[in-house]
Design a protein that fits this description.
With about 140 residues, the protein is mainly β. It is built from one helix and twelve strands, in the order E-E-E-E-E-E-E-E-E-E-E-E-H. It has a single domain, classed as Jelly Rolls (Sandwich), CATH 2.60.120. The chain binds thymidine-5'-diphosphate (TYD).
Length: about 140
């Protein structure tokens, strides 16, 4: 799906454990301008339910597991995130929903930009309308 990719990070392992370095524009396609992390999500709760107009983010499950559904109004995919060495990159015009968090889940998110509520799409119908306009202009494939 456009604007969705699973990235496998370089893992420097030794008898002393593992180290995963992530440098902007080297290990991921953009400079990191913000991080946030999520934990303590009850099993029956969902997060996300939005899309972005410009933001790229990479979701890394540092502990436990969760599922992420991504969709663009035409197709959908569900990813299980349950390891520290992979990140799910989600770019603009992808509606995402995060659910089935394990009790111990810690989710780290690396963002391409500062927090800006105005670039969020939180209404699914508005998202579909805008994404369909962009399809018509052949800007997404
Ligand atoms: P939201 O993006 O809706 O979280 P989720 O998609 O995980 O459910 O954000 C929840 C609240 O936190 C909302 O009031 C905005 C605020 N927030 C910030 O202040 N800074 C941030 O970097 C993020 C991601 C959210």
């Amino acid at each position: 799906m456009y604007n969705v990719a699973l990235i496998k990070f370089k893992n420097i392992s030794s008898e002393c454990g593992h180290l995963i370095p992530i440098e902007g524009k080297i290990d991921i396609p953009y400079e990191i301008k913000r991080i946030f992390y999520i934990y303590g999500v009850p099993k029956d709760k969902k997060r996300g339910n939005h899309s972005h107009r410009s933001l790229y983010e990479i979701l890394i499950c540092l502990k436990g597991s969760l599922k992420v559904k991504v969709q663009n109004g035409r197709e959908e995919e569900v990813y299980v995130l349950n390891n520290e060495y992979e990140g799910l990159m989600i770019g603009p015009w992808i509606w995402n929903e995060m659910f089935d968090y394990s009790d111990d889940c810690v989710l780290l998110v690396l963002c391409s930009d500062k927090y800006d509520e105005s670039e969020y799409l939180r209404d699914y119908d508005v998202f579909l309308k805008e994404v369909n306009e962009i399809y018509k202009e052949n800007k997404l494939c």
